[in-house]
Design brief:
Layout: H1 2-11, E1 15-20, H2 24-40, E2 44-50, E3 61-64, E4 67-70, E5 76-77, H3 82-89, E6 96-98, E7 106-110, E8 113-116, E9 121-122, E10 125-126, H4 129-134, H5 140-147, H6 163-171, H7 173-187, H8 197-200, H9 202-211, H10 214-231, E11 240-243, H11 248-257, E12 261-264, E13 268-273, E14 285-289, E15 294-297, E16 299-302, H12 306-313, H13 318-325, E17 329-340, E18 352-355, E19 363-367, H14 369-372, E20 381-389, H15 401-416, E21 424-435, H16 441-452, E22 458-460, H17 470-499
Helix pairs in contact: 2-11, 2-17, 3-17, 6-7, 9-10, 12-13, 13-16
Length: about 500
């Protein structure tokens, strides 16, 4: 009888999932959907639809003449292990490349000068007394105010607050202006006065609640990490890692593993219920594409910007579309410049610099790429990457390439004294590509997901929702795949049981 049921189950037509968006979130979703369907013994097909000609989204690597230039992210954080685990699972372990931690120094452009972040500062919290006490970055009153964190009572309210409000409350205005705003808000390309603490730095909330002080909490975690390092074995992973040939290798490895229907260069123009409609137990979606084709799917995963998802769901659920559009986005651009080392006077003794908001510089930050990572330039060359746009200067992103390159060269001349002529230059624009996690963001996402239950089989994943980094997007893809497999398994079970009746 069991053999008969098994045979019947696998003669059923496979269910189909449509994944819209071929960035890292969509790729990870497809990969884990494939793996988990195989583990569950669920016959499943999927189509991955991407409007661009290539997959990868903001992961873009240009390898030319010995330079390895990243247009979007240049690395992933290993404290969130999803990306590291996926690289190893895909056989990329030998390609992993950590940062040059002996050169781990970050500067802050403040008062027109590059001032180094004191050794031992973890995010914004000092954990070593002497380097912090001797640092010219923070004034004596500012240092004393940061020390008051040791005595400020923990917050009793559970509601969300902005990063700016939190840092001001615990460490003071100067810590916000000179460290948290350029360094931490810069990670999210966001205004700290609006940036949700719960959605971006929940670790701070946990430290405050557990230890009553950020400084005490960071010191305790640092001590724990040191003990773990002594008791553990093996080489500790770098905090940030990339791949030797650039992050594009991760995209290529993922695509090579995918067995579903891959549709690059295909734009989805419409999403609607199929004829059986949402009230049917087997309700399906009909997807229309710009080449005239249609696709029927038992589930749809939208791994797109939230405003794109809003356009697709509006005919079916206008209120949900409005919630999706309420997630704000800002635009950025990266400008990478390569130089001959012999023509370059600055020592590039660090990973780069971030820019405080009150500075007149038109840059947000600059990474000294060839110092941060090895194997990024040909012999006797250097590589820098500047960031332009964001909440304060979005209009700069629309400048022509030559104007953007000239702007960056002028800023580097003023900040670093760079007069050399670049031998290579690359501009990458990311219009409306950076979601803003405003205060209350996680509650907003909860609301979106609750409203989406009205549309059975529809799911959202990607940087707009529960994390913007590569590991966040990979983990969201994994969780989304698990939910879809569980739902389709539950939907299929009654069919299998009915078919098995004598």
């Amino acid at each position: 009888m069991q053999e008969t049921q098994h045979a019947i189950r696998h003669t059923q037509h496979p269910m189909r999932v449509a994944i819209v968006g071929g960035g890292i979130a969509g790729l990870a979703t497809a990969y884990y959907l494939q793996e988990k369907a195989r583990q569950a013994g669920l016959p499943l097909g999927y189509s991955l639809i991407e409007s661009s000609a290539t997959f990868g989204g903001k992961i873009v690597t240009d390898a030319q003449d010995g330079f390895v230039i990243e247009g979007g992210p240049d690395s992933f954080i290993t404290q969130k292990p999803a990306a590291l685990h996926l690289c190893r699972e895909l056989g990329l372990e030998e390609q992993l490349l950590g940062t040059n931690d002996a050169q781990r120094k970050v500067y802050v452009l403040e008062g027109g000068q590059l001032r180094s972040l004191p050794d031992g500062v973890m995010l914004v919290v000092p954990t070593r007394f002497t380097p912090f006490a001797l640092s010219p970055l923070i004034s004596l009153p500012g240092k004393l105010r940061m020390g008051v964190d040791l005595f400020i009572p923990r917050r009793s309210e559970q509601s969300d607050e902005s990063l700016a409000d939190f840092i001001r409350r615990r460490l003071g205005q100067e810590a916000l202006d000179k460290i948290a705003e350029p360094l931490m808000a810069g990670i999210h390309v966001a205004d700290p006065e609006r940036l949700s603490l719960q959605a971006t730095f929940p670790r701070f909330i946990q430290l405050e609640q557990k230890y009553g002080s950020l400084i005490k909490g960071m010191l305790a975690q640092k001590a724990h990490g040191a003990r773990h390092s002594r008791n553990g074995t093996g080489r500790k992973a770098s905090l940030f890692m990339t791949l030797r040939g650039g992050l594009r290798e991760l995209v290529e490895a993922l695509v090579a593993q995918l067995e579903g229907e891959l549709l690059p260069g295909t734009r989805l123009t419409g999403l609607a219920w199929a004829s059986d409609g949402p009230t049917s137990a087997n309700g399906r979606y009909c997807l229309r594409m710009d080449d005239g084709r249609t696709l029927l799917a038992d589930a749809v995963i939208l791994a797109t910007p939230s405003y794109t998802a809003a356009d697709l769901v509006e005919p079916m659920h206008p209120a949900l579309a409005a919630e999706l559009r309420a997630i704000r986005y800002v635009s950025t651009a990266t400008v990478s410049l390569g130089f001959r080392r012999a023509e370059f006077e600055h020592p590039l003794n660090g990973f780069g610099f971030v820019v405080a908001a009150r500075e007149r510089s038109r840059l947000m930050a600059c990474t000294w790429t060839s110092t941060k990572f090895n194997q990024r330039v040909p012999d006797e060359h250097l590589l820098l990457r500047a960031f332009v746009g964001g909440p304060r200067n979005q209009e700069l992103v629309a400048l022509p390439d030559e104007a953007l390159i000239q702007l960056v060269r002028e800023e580097l001349r003023q900040v670093m004294g760079v007069n050399a002529t670049p031998v290579i230059a690359r501009v990458y624009r990311w219009p409306e590509a950076n979601p803003q996690y405003d205060v209350g963001h996680l509650q907003q996402v909860d609301h979106i997901e609750a409203m989406a239950t009205d549309l059975a089989g529809l799911h959202f994943t990607g940087s707009a929702y529960r994390g913007v980094g590569i590991p966040d997007c990979i983990q969201q893809g994994q969780h989304t795949a698990e939910r879809v497999i569980n739902e389709l398994s539950q939907r299929r079970r009654p069919v299998d049981e009915a078919a098995a009746q004598p």
